[in-house]
Each structure stands twice: as C-alpha cells, then as structure tokens.
Amino acid sequence: MLTELNKVIDVEGLMLIEHESVGEPSLILMHYVSEFTKQKANVVYVSLNQSEEMLRTVCGKLAIRLDQNLFHFIPWKLVLSGGPSSSMNTFDWLEELILSKINPSMKSLIIFDNAMAFSSLSHDPTEAVQFSQRIRQTLQPGSITLLASGNQSYFMGFEDIASAYFRLKLVNRGSGKNVTGVLELEHHPTLFDATTQQHIYHYLVGERSLKLFMPGATQFII
C-alpha cells in the first residue's frame, strides 16, 4: 500500500508504533494488513481499541479484501473474559489462542493495537516481553509482530528486541488539509545489523486512502 515504505524497510520480527495520545496507528497497521493480505499470509488482529465490524469497514474503504480463512480478529475482552484455567498463565493462554488461528506453514502478521492491554494481564512488564519473544521465535521467517501505543512507557523492554520503531506525530492535531502528520522510522537494515537507518516522511490519512510523501514533495508517493 505504501510503496515508499516497502522500498526502505524489509525486516521481520517485532515492530513498534508510537503515536500521540490523540492520534492512532492506522497508517502503519493498515499498510501491513494490506501487504500480508495480498501475500496470502496469516493475519491476526488483537484489538483493545475497536470492533471487528469497524475494522472491516476501514479495510473495505481501503480496498483491502480480507481472506475469511487467513484473517482472524481477537477482541481484548475475549482475552479478559475467556481466560485460562487457574493452572495456566494468561500470556501462555493468549499465545496458544493466537497460534491456534494461524497456518503454521505460512508467514504471519500479528497485531496488538494497544500495548496498554498487556498491563491488564500482569504488572510485570517482562512477562509481555517474554511473550512477544516466544511468538516471534515460533512464527515462520518473514513474519512480523506489530505493537502500537500512544504512551511510550508501555514499550519498556521491547525497544531492545525491536527491528523497527515508527513514530507518528500529528500536524495541527491531524487537521491539516494536505498533511496529517510526520512519520519517523528507525530500523535495523537486517536482523544482524547493530546500526540503524532513519527516515522521515509526511503522511496524509484520507477516508479511502493512505498517502506517504517526502517533506516538501509536491507529488504523493502512493
């Protein structure tokens, strides 16, 4: 969907998306939902923020055709209400739930649209980090886990294992006519690179489109 983003980043593993508290992470989330859907890969969307109906409406407007056999939506209320037996850790149960939805022979996109949700399962942030590492190690090569948050503090411990970090900053609280905000991207070119590359773009979120372009550009890169 965002062609320019695909040109500069081709990594797997955990990616973090930081956005302002009055903003939201749809620019990046919908890009990867679109890309993995086109590749006929598993997509599991774990949501604290929205309903499945709302998500499907957004995907429809963006011409993203979700595969009923490959796309799975898990509302966070199911995680809280459906919970494990007393002998099982909640993160272990959530891991089993997610893995039960996917075809293990295919690569996967796992999305958590609000990292704050993890705090409802445990006060120990290391449990969420360990859970994320287990998921990452289980999935096929080329798989991605996306973790979004409007509060950077919920990324504590995740930064050290992330392959990419997106920051979305609104312009005029997102009300600009020609630009919604600024996207800052920092990523490791490969899993084995200690150094990082940085890129800055402007973006525009429309009702039926997502557009990315270089600061000062007169033409959108779509």
UniProtKB/TrEMBL annotation:
<dbReference type="InterPro" id="IPR027417">
    <property type="entry name" value="P-loop_NTPase"/>
</dbReference>
<protein>
    <submittedName>
        <fullName>KaiC-like domain-containing protein</fullName>
    </submittedName>
</protein>
